[in-house]
Amino acid sequence: MTDDNHDHPVEQAGTTEALPLSPSMGPALRAARVPFRSSLVDRRVLFISLLSIPLAVIAAFVAKALVVLIGTITGVSFFGRLSPVLTAPVDNHLGWWIVLIPVAGGIIVGLMARYGSAGIRGHGIPEAMERVLLHQSRVPARLTFLKPLSAAIAIGTGGPFGAEGPIIATGGALGSLVGQVLRITAIERKTLLAAGAAAGMAGIFGTPVAAVLLAVELLLFEFRPRSFIPVALASTVATGTRFTLHMPYPVFQLPALAQPSLSAMALYMLIGAVVGIVSVGVTRAVYGIEDLFAKLPIHWMWWPAIGAIPVGIIGHFSPRTLGVGYENISDILMSRLTLSVAATLCLLKFISWSIALGSGTSGGTLAPLFTIGGGLGMVLGAAAARIFPGANVDPHVAALVGMAALFAGASRGLLTSAVFAYETTLQPLGLLPLLAGCTTAYFVSCLLMRNTIMTEKIARRGVDVPAEYLSDLLAFLKVSQVATSKVTILSADETVQSIRHRLSTGQPDWTHQGYPVVDADGNLLGVLTLRDFHDPTHNPGRPIGELIRRPPITIAPDATLRDAVNEMIVHDVGRLVVADPANRRKVVGIITRSDLLRAQRRALDDMILAEPAVSWRRRRRRAGGE
C-alpha cells in the first residue's frame, strides 16, 4: 500500500468512484469500477445469463454429436458397420484381434496429444480446474474440438470411459472461448466456463440440478447469485434441448423403491463408509499407476497405446468392460446380473479403467466409477441382507448407494453425487439413502485423503484447490462496528510547524498514519500522513491545506468491511475516511488496515476451543451448595 497523498484524479459518478490509475495496478484493477455498496446482481449478470443460453444449446448439440460419434466409431471398430447408434461391443466376434483395437485408438490419441494439444490427456475436469485457478479460465480454442474427438476415438475403440468428462471439458472450453472473444472480466469468463461445463453434463444425462452442483463444487469454488444464475440457466436450457433431441430419460432404469426402514438406513450408511474407503484406494491406485507410467523410458505419446494392451486383453475375456458401459450400470441397478458376474465386472472394470486413465489417454471418470461403485454396492448389499435379514436391505438401493458413494468419496462432490443418482433414476425414495451413503463416504474420504481424484494431479503441480466454502466475515461486519470514531481532525489553516510541535508533545493522540483535514466549515478536504508533516522540503510556515494533492476517499458507516477492503485495494490506500451518508464531506470516523485485521481476528477466535463457562461438575457443586 502507498500513501494517501498520491496525485490521482477521482471522478464522482453517482455512488461509484472512478479509479486512480496507479502504475502499480494491473489492467483488471485499472479498468474496474468498485461500487460504494456492492449489489447481488446487475446488468452484467443479465448479459452473461443471455450469453449462457445459446452456449447451452450448442453444448447440448455437441453432447449429442459426441454420443453419435462414439457410436459410429464403435460400430466401425468392432462390427465393421457404419451406424450412429451407440452399441456396446459385447457381441463382437473378433476373438484375440480385439486387443489391437484399443491399441490403435491409443496410438491415435497419443499422436493427437503430442502434435495437437497435451490438454486432451486425462478426463478433463482437473485440467478445467487448473484453467480456472491459474489461467483466468482461458482454455485453448483447439481443445473445443480436439477433446471430444480424442475422447470419441478412445471410447469408440474400447476405452473403458464415459463420455461425460470430455463433454464437460468441451462445454467448459466453449464457454471459455466465448469469454475470450468478448470483452469480459476473468470472473465472468469463469462463469461462462462453468455454464458450458454444466450444460455439457446436462446435455449428456439430463441432470440439470446435479450439473449446477458439479459446477459449484468443482469449478466455481463459490456460491453467489452472479455466478449461480447463468450456470443454472445454462443447465436448464441444455436439459430442455436434450428433450427435443429425444435422448433417453431417465438414463438408468430402476424399479419402484419402497420406503427404507431405520435399520436399512443404518446399513446404507455403513455401505457408504466402506465404499468411501474403497474410493481412497481407487484414487491412490490411479495416480500410482500414473507414476509408474512416468518412469517408462519412452515418450508419453506412446503411453496410451501401452495402457490399451491390458484394456484389450481384459476386454477379450470380459467385453462388458469395453466402452462407456451405461448398460452395465442399468443392469446392476436392476439386479439383472448375478453377484459373481457383478463382482467380476467391478474388479475387471477397475483394473482396465485405472490402467487406461493412468496412461494419460482421453476419457471420463464418472461412468466407470458408477459401474465399479454400483457393483460394489450390490455385493455389500447382498452381504448386509444375509447378515441382517430383518433389516430389509433393498439390493437395488444398495447398488444405487454404492454407485453414488464411490464418486462422492473419490471426487468430494457430495451433493453432485446424490442428486445425480436421483436425477438419472427418478426414484424419490432413493434420495434419503443416497444422501446418507454419500455423506459417510465423503466423511471417510476427507479423513483418509487430502486430495481427490479430481485435484491430485494439479495439487502435484503446486496448485492449491479450494476445498471449503466459508462465509466471509468481512461481508457481514459494518464499517461502523470497527472504525475509530474519535478521530484527530486537522484544520487546513494550521501550519506545518504547528503540527510538528503537536507531534513532539504527543498531543492529541497520534496513533494513525493518516489524518483528515477539514476547512473552516468542517468540510473534508483530504487526508495527510505523518510523512507529509515530517517532509523537510515543506516550508514550516505553509498551511497544511496546501499539501493536499488528491480528493479524499470516503466510505459510509453502513458499508461492509468487504467494501472497505475493495476500496483500499482499488484506490491503493491504507485508510478510508468514514463519512456521513447524508454529507460525504462530514467526517464521522476513520478505518485502517489494522482495524480490518482486528476484525479478521474475530474469525480466528471463533476457531479456538474455549473452556465451557460452567462445567458439569461446577454446576453439580453449586447445586449441592445451595
The CATH topology annotation of the largest domain reads as Clc chloride channel
Beta-strand portion reads 5-15%
Number of domains: 3
How many strands in all?
A: 9
Low-confidence stretches: 1-36
Description of the structure:
- With 626 residues, the chain is mainly alpha-helical.
- It has 3 domains: 163 residues, CBS-domain, CATH 3.10.580.10; 202 residues, Clc chloride channel (Orthogonal Bundle), CATH 1.10.3080; 198 residues, Clc chloride channel.
- Helices cover 57% and strands 6% of the residues.
- The chain contains 24 helices and 9 strands.
- The longest helix has 37 residues.
Any chance you could write out the topology, listing elements then pairs?
Blueprint: E1 12-13, E2 16-17, H1 27-31, E3 34-35, H2 43-79, H3 100-115, H4 125-134, H5 143-156, H6 164-181, H7 186-205, H8 208-220, H9 225-244, H10 262-294, H11 303-317, H12 326-333, H13 339-358, H14 366-387, H15 395-411, H16 414-425, H17 431-448, H18 456-459, H19 479-482, E4 490-491, H20 496-505, E5 514-518, E6 524-529, H21 530-534, E7 554-555, H22 561-571, E8 575-580, E9 583-592, H23 593-607, H24 616-625
Helix pairs in contact: 2-5, 2-6, 2-7, 2-9, 3-5, 3-11, 5-6, 6-7, 7-8, 7-9, 8-9, 8-16, 10-13, 10-14, 10-15, 10-17, 11-13, 12-14, 13-14, 14-15, 15-16, 15-17, 16-17
Can you give me a brief rundown of this structure?
The chain has 24 helices and nine strands. It has 626 residues and is mainly alpha-helical.
Defining traits:
mainly alpha, 3-stranded mixed beta sheet, 3-stranded antiparallel beta sheet, 626 residues, 24 helices, Clc chloride channel, CBS-domain
